[in-house]
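Field: COMPLEX_INPUT
Field: COMPONENT_COUNT = three
Field: RESIDUE_TOTAL = 1035
Field: MODE = joint
Values follow.
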Amino acid sequence: MSSFPTDPSLQGDVPLLDVRELCTSFSTQRGRLQAVDQVSFQLEQGQTLGVVGESGSGKTVLARTIMGLLSGGGIEHSGSVRFEGQEILGASNAVLRKLWGARMAMIFQDPMTALNPVMRIGRQITESLRLHLDVDRAEARAIALSLLTQVGIPSPEERFKSHPGELSGGMRQRVMIAIALACSPRLLLADEPTTGLDVTVQAQILDLLASLQEERNMAMILVTHDLGVVATRTDQIIVMYAGRIVERAPTAALFSSMAMPYTEALLGSTPRLSNPSHTRLAAIAGRPPDLAALPSGCSFSPRCRYAQDLCRRQAPPLVAAETPGHAYACWFPLGGRVGPAPTETPVSVR
Amino acid sequence: MNAYPPQAGMGVGVGSVVGPTSHYASSEERPLLQVQDLRVDFRRGRSRVQAVAGVSFAIRAGETLGLVGESGCGKSTTGRAIVQVARPTGGSITFDGVDLTSLSGSRLRRARVGIQMIFQDPISSLNPRRRVRDIVAEPLDIWKKGAKAERDAVVTSMLEAVGLSAEVAGPRRPREFSGGQCQRISIARALVMEPRLLICDEVVSALDVSVQAQILNLLEDLKARYGLTLLFIAHDLAVVKNISDRVAVMYLGKLCEIASADTLYRSPAHHYTQALLSSAVEPDPSATERPPALQGEPPSPIHPPSGCRFRTRCPRAAARCAAEEPAMREIAPGHAVACHFPLSTSDQSQASGATAAGATAAGAAPSVSPG
Amino acid sequence: MTERAVPVEAPDPRTPVSTEAADALGGAAVAAITEVSEPRRHLGVVFWVSLGWIVLTILAAIFANVLPLQDPNLQSATVNAGPSAAHFFGTDQLGRDIFSRVIFGSRVSIVVGFGAIAIGLLTGGTLGMVAAYYRGAVDVVVNAVSYVLLAFPALVAVIAIVTFWKASLWKITLIIGVASAPLIFRIVRASTLSYATRDFVTAARTLGATNRRILTRELLPNILPTVVSFSLIGVATVIVLEGSLAFLGLSIPGPTPSWGNMLNQSRTGLNTIPGQSNPWLVIFPALAMFLFLISLNLVGDRLRQHFDVSEIKL
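Field: COMPLEX_OUTPUT
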């Protein structure tokens, strides 16, 4: 794992976040939905992990499970989520409350619904400060104002008294970031933080997150549907499809030598500025699968141009590629690689 | 009422550049659509908002014009004003030689059948209580076109043209379909009356990346097959570039720049266009060296800045920009910009350096087949 | 919790499993939608029993004249009798057959209930759709008028009018109908507004549909479920109102039976002859009214839920 230097300050070799064989399922009218299936990864201090997937890929459920936000009727988890060595999965609310805000924080796609519309901005920031840090009202206010300045909100004194409805989408997301960072968490989960924002505002928010992250040596999980968002701002990327990791790699390795046909298809479907106009997109047929009725074998096989009998029969395991940290789940990987051996005798001949 | 009377400022300038006499809207054939000094006002509380404040452009038959800009710039309102769903408060919209703004009632209904529109939200675009076959047949029913059997044949072939099986999809209701499929149904309904101009308002922005590519390819195919002319409105620069022949950039109700797609992206002349391009993210890890992103957010359209509307965020703003509104002028054949200090060629090459670097890396996208 | 936690990712449980077939090359290939029939939604036994009861009551009211019933105004010798083979529900203090009077009495409730709401729908409902679709000055004016009317204490107004203007079946229906119009207006307007701004209405306009076509073909089918379920609950409310008026002696005067004036009668009957109270005179009209009202409410509520659900899943 050359691209993930272990932080010497951590005793032993405990990563900041260690997710192992995590599964999350929901019971619905149509049966159990396996929203997250056998997901494992580690995240070190100060590193950024991009989680990329289309709708129904399980990326948002994964983020919320890691945060400990999903519990209650009909939801089942298995596996383990260790944050700073502490098990989060199934932890009590009292334990989680101590972590939320203080050690790990989350920002959401729609800051309007994540902010309390009837509470002034200032109070929403100071509330968390006073809960986690032992500060009085004046100190909390001073910290909050400095946070608003740090996240690039003009005239923070005025904004302190505003309600969320009075701010633009970009400003609201900045406020969300200020709230999330109020107690200097070690891990920030950003779930589609720029989806729905304008291009220029998106660039501002992504730059802001990157600079704050560097300043604070904070780890970040950036969940998005847009390969462009994660291409230049992450250390490693997880590509998810139908609840599973289909490819995991250091960012540069993923783009230079991708192994999974789905990753290739996703990239081929994305229009690019660098291509001339009327460039035919390498679109793939179909759409992301329905989690309640997954195809047998590899979930991507019905849409995959390379799919063979084996793919439709047996789901491929996640196996390591030649680059350290690079793994993929495909029987017939790209780039002339030799795929994993199936557990049963293969019928099809490659 | 209007802050900028049509005879002053950019109205005349734009007309002279983008008008039918302009050589790229070739003089021998008149453009299919000619939008001249279009203005649309909305009342918001007590104040009036100029959502579109004097926009002029022309679309030739058979071309695709992309209209790009950020939210609230008036690009969607422009599209809705062309079909007269938002009635313009000023200017003219000449479609196929007829000024739509002068029409009303049944004459307007008849005249605009040649223009059809597809919307962003594929699910809200379809009546949830009707069956797909009836939805697609609706225009034929409205205009009492053909006998039942003929209509059925048209609907079947149109559903199949957009990639849906008429037999399976026809008797179902919209809620049984995914967003991408609903968008296909919308396209089928829009094309059933054989329109000449198709206005696409953010039609792929609600879709998954893999489905978005399918719809973009489908639109290109249908355009070729039915000889359509497209006005493609979107916020995503890469999507707009992919589908458009020419691209117009809007900011706060006005056009900044208009040029052929490849020219605009290779050598933007307006500072706003350049800012948009440098803000765009590309799926390419090597594209790291970018000029700093634009600061701040667009000002309120209720009180737009004097002079050039972009001056409050423009790195090159000078006194003249506040005093005088820049007129649209042609800086190269087919390339018009509304800026007192457009980017010179040297600026442009600098700006597009990152994009050029990206282009080489993009070519290396793996396309190796397995084993 | 489950529903709230996963709105972004949870796949629409109703979308069929689909593989849009190889149409990456545009529209050439045909996308297959695998045959997954829409899951049947059940209205439930309670709904059908309630609906059955409503239909039965209405049929009985319509065919009361031809049914083998005793004359509701025939005074027999047996006074204040309990249920028997001759008189299923017993007789009142004038010896009239309660069973027959309950059935004939339902006519008043049904006519006033459905009639008043029909008047309300025709006036308030039509105005509501028109105001919500056209907006502008029409909307502002009708909206303002509806607020003024809503601020009026309807019951007091009805009592005052009836006192001065002598009650009859049609007058009561008309008055309550007019009183219900502003409320129906508000509900129809709100429900129309939520659809009028959707893109399928804009699409219909650009396709050349006339305003009347949009109102009747695009908007009406969408608001109908809400309007129907609300109307049924409205009918129940009106029946209670008529009952209250009758109980106060302000509705249809005797000897015409109605559930309300039978209850009123029973009150006087109970009081005048102490020790000889006739509970049947209270129980049967009250029971008939209760069952009819609860059926209306259950049907209305179940319909509302039924269509709400499909709306959410949209």
